[in-house]
Design a protein that fits this description.
Double Stranded RNA Binding Domain, 29% strand
Length: 176
């Protein structure tokens, strides 16, 4: 048999083996949201409303935060949300909402302002208390000092809330 034909047949055989073997060998389950929950054990989550306990208060911040926190768990897990007695319990409060001068322009006045939101979280895993914690989560956003806070506040709070709720989600159920 010609060596070229032999090499071609060998290549075809290798490709055939790989084509048949790879799909079986690569059967890996991916969870794109990062949640690693054993739903046979953990079925419910209790998310208590987070009141505002900061010195500076912007009232809509509370509902924006609470809605986003419940939504992220509803959208990215199969956990049933309950009012009391959850397998997982998330509670806490919004403890900080502050603004700081971030940059100074050549005229000596502030050119950038940084807004910081801080949330204190108490997490209880009633199925595995070794995972319980109390921790602070925070996020920042900047805006141009020529703008008034009232004009950018909703957008910045929404952005910081998204960041903080993702941090809380990752710390409580992602475990990666």
């Amino acid at each position: 048999m010609d060596s070229r034909i032999c090499k071609s047949l060998c290549r075809v055989a290798v490709v055939a083996v790989l084509a048949v073997g790879l799909p079986v060998a690569c059967a890996v389950e991916y969870k794109f949201n990062g949640a690693s929950i054993d739903y046979a054990v953990t079925k419910t989550i209790q998310i208590d409303p987070f009141p505002i306990r900061s010195t500076y208060v912007w009232a809509p911040m509370q509902s924006i935060f609470n809605n986003r926190l419940t939504d992220i768990f509803a959208q990215q897990t199969k956990l049933r949300q309950v009012k009391r007695g959850g397998d997982l319990v998330i509670a806490g409060e919004i403890t900080g909402f502050d603004q700081f001068n971030k940059g100074v322009g050549s005229d000596g006045y502030s050119s950038q302002v940084q807004l910081k939101m801080t949330v204190n979280v108490r997490f209880t895993n009633n199925k595995n208390h070794s995972e319980d914690f109390e921790r602070q989560f925070s996020a920042t956003a900047e805006y141009d000092a020529t703008q008034q806070l009232i004009n950018v506040q909703e957008e910045l709070v929404t952005q910081m809330t998204k960041d903080i709720t993702e941090q809380i989600f990752n710390a409580t159920v992602a475990n990666w």
